[in-house]
Write a structure and sequence with these properties.
Blueprint lengths: L11 E4 L10 H9 E15 L4 E5 L5 E9 L5 H11 L13 E9 L4 E9 L14 H11 L1
Antiparallel strand pairs: 1-4, 2-3, 2-4, 5-6
Length: 149
């Protein structure tokens, strides 16, 4: 499922939750400052409604996360920029800090034109008894939930 080369650095990130442009969250303002939108994209995975946030788990099944692919504007800023996103996602936090357990990995990203390799944040714990988001699209899911209420 994962394709990447250790010899070639990856300066792209795939986002499916609050980092997407449609959320208009403060975190997206950060993304747009350091990254350019490449295209809409998808990655094989399952998306879950965890209440206040979505969580994704990788899969080899024909299930997809819907999101966006971004590329860093200036490669020399990538390490600093990704460290800020890691902090936002709670990557280096201690469990007692109440951080959401994510891990950052490389994944194959499917764009309208070709497959790319990018970083993605996967949920780092098993998910039990949480509703799956069948469309894999958090924005669409939130619109549906709003229309129900």
């Amino acid at each position: 499922m994962y394709l990447y080369s250790m010899q070639q650095p990856v300066f792209q990130i795939f986002v499916y939750g609050s980092l997407r442009s449609g959320f208009h969250a403060p975190a997206f303002e950060y993304i747009s400052r350091y990254f350019d939108l490449v295209s809409d994209a998808k990655v094989k995975g399952y998306l879950y409604d965890m209440g206040e946030f979505p969580a994704a788990l990788p899969t080899d099944d024909e299930a997809y996360l819907i999101g966006e692919l971004y590329r860093i504007k200036r490669e020399e800023e990538f390490n600093w920029a990704i460290e800020q996103l890691d902090a936002y996602e709670g990557i280096h936090s201690e469990p007692e800090e109440g951080a959401i357990p994510y891990r950052r990995e490389l994944a194959t990203v499917i764009t309208p034109n070709e497959n790319e390799v990018a970083w993605i944040y996967w949920f780092n714990e098993p998910i039990k008894d949480q509703p799956i988001i069948p469309s894999g699209d958090m924005l669409e899911y939130l619109r549906q939930q709003k229309n129900k209420g």
